[in-house]
Design a protein that fits this description.
Helix content: 55-70%
Number of strands: 2
Strand content: under 5%
Order of helices and strands: HHHHHHHHHHHHHHHHHHEEHHHH
Shape: globular
Number of helices: 22
Structural class: mainly alpha
Mean pLDDT: 82
Length: 595
Amino acid sequence: MRIAYKDRKLEAAIVAIKAVTSALVVASFVVLFGFDEPLIPKSILFTIQLGLLLIFLAGKVVRFFNAVFKKDYIVANWFEIPLLLALGATVLGSRWWFGGAEPEDVRHLGIGIYLIIEVLVKVCMASVGLAASGKNPTKTLIASFLVLIIAGGGLLMLPKASTGEPLSFVDALFTATSATCVTGLVVKDTGQDFTFMGQMIILALIQLGGLGIVVFGAVFALLLGQAFSIRESVAMQDVLSAQTLSRIGNMIVFIFVATVAIEAAGAVLLYPMWDNVPGVPTDVQFRWFCSIFHSISAFCNAGFGLFNDSLIRYSSQWQVYTVIATLIILGGLGFGVLYNLADIAANRIQRFFKRLFYKQYRLQMEFPRRMRLQTKIVLSISVFMIVLGAVMILLFEQYAGSPLDARPDILGAFFQSVTSRTAGFNTVDIAGMTASSKIVLIMWMFIGGSPGSTAGGIKTVTLAVIVMMVIATLRKRAEVEMFHRSVRPVVVGRAITVAMLFVVALFGTTLALSVTENPLPVQFAILDVMFEAVSALGTVGLTTGMTPTLTGAGKIIIIVAMLVGRLGPLTLLAALTFNLKPVRYNYPDEAIIVG
C-alpha cells in the first residue's frame, strides 16, 4: 500500500536515516557475535542498540504525523502494534515474568529481536520496492545477488565463523558465491572448517539465493498484509516468470508454503538416516541440524553437505535415493510447474467432492484444469534425462573399465543421473569414474534443470525447443510443434540464444582455467578442467577434486562462472541491452547456403 505524505523531503530524510540506522544495527550485531571477544564492551554495544531503537521509534512517530491519511498509515503498518506491545511487555516485565533470568539480559534480548525484525522487514520491503521501481529489473536482480554475496562473504570472514584461521577474502567470496548461487563447489570443508555460526550463514545464503531475496520480500509483504500495486505485481511477474498477473499473490503464497512444507517433510524423513554411521555424532541437536541442512540444500539444489565425502558414506541408506533424490527433483522442476500440478490436483479433488455431495451441479461444472505445455515439456524431458542418464552411467561404469569396487549399482547410477543436472551431491567418487561417464555428466550439467527453478544450465525447455526445431526442419514444417501446440518464433530464437551464450561461456571459462591452472597437477586432465567449468556454470557443484587446488585467479574465474550460471547468460545480456530500441526496418533478403 502506498502512503501519501505531506512533506516528501521529510519522508526522504527519514528513509535515509532509517537505512543508516539499519546498517548500524547490523554492524552492532556483527561486533557483538562475530568475534571471540567483542571489540567494544557489551555495555556500550547495548547502549548503542538502545539508541538505535529510539531512532526507529522516533521515525515512526514522525511518519505517522507526516502521513496525509493516518488510518492508511496504521493499516499499512498494523504489524508494528503487536511488536511494540511485545517489546514493551518484555522490557517492563523483565524483572517478574521470566523466571530466574537476569532482567538486563531479558531486556537486551527483547531489544535485539525487535531490531532484527525491524531490519529484516525493511530489507524485504525495499527489495520489492526496488524491483518495482521501473528501472532495469535485471539490474535489480543482479544487484540483489551481488549484495547478498558480498554481505555473506563478509560474515564468513568473521573469526567466529570458522574453526581455524579466519577465511581469506577470496575463499570467503568463493564460499558465499557458491552458496548464494546454489552451486556447492567448496574450497573449505563445510562440516570441519566452519563453526555452527558459519554453517548457519551458508544455510541462510542457500535459502535466500535459491528462492531469491525479492521473493522473500514479497512473502513478508503478503504476510504483513501489504497489497501489491500494479507495478509491484508486474515486477513480481517478471521475477517469477509467471504467465498471468492475476495469480501473482497466490503463486507467492504457494512458493512460501510449498518450500516450508517440502523442506520440513524432507528434514523429518532424513532424521533416521544419521544413525549407526561411524564417525558421526549421535546427539539429537546435530542429527536435526544435519536433517534440516541437507533438506534445504537438496531442495534448493545447492549440493552443500556437512561431510567431506558428500553422501558416499550414506550410499547404503534408502533416504538418499528416496528423500534426497525427490527433494532434488522437486526443486529442479520449477515453482511454475509445481504450482500447475498442485492447482490441477486441488481442482480434481474439488470436482470429486462436488460430484459426490452436490449431484445437482454435475451438469454445471466447468471443464477440469489442464496441464500447461510448460509442465508437459518439463516432466517429459526430466523423466527422459533421468532414465537415460542412469542407463548410460551404469553401462559405462560396468563395462568401460571402471574399478570393480567403484562401480555404482542401479541406485547409484540413478542418483548420479538425478544430481548431475543441478544438485551436486554424489554417492560415488567422481574422480574415479570413467571418462565416458564424466562426459555424460558434463552433458547433463550443461542441460541442467527447468526454468523458474533453482537449477542452472540451459534448462530442459530450451533443449526441447532446440530439438523440436531440428525435427521441424527435417520434416519441412514451418513451425516448431510440441504436444499439438505451436511454439512462437521469438521463443525459438530465445532458446537458440541461451544455448549459444552458454556454449560461449563454457568454452571461455574452460580456456581461462586452462591458462590460470597451467601446468595442471598430474592427476587432472583438460576433461577435468571442462568438468569444473560446466559444474560452475550449471550451478551443479560436482567436482573431480580440482576445486581445492585452484589458484587465486582460478577461484575468481569460477566465482564469475557461478554468478553467470545462476543469473543466466540471457539475463546478463538483457541487462546490457535493456535500453536498446528495436529497429523499424528490414534489409532485403538474399539466399545463402548453410550446412
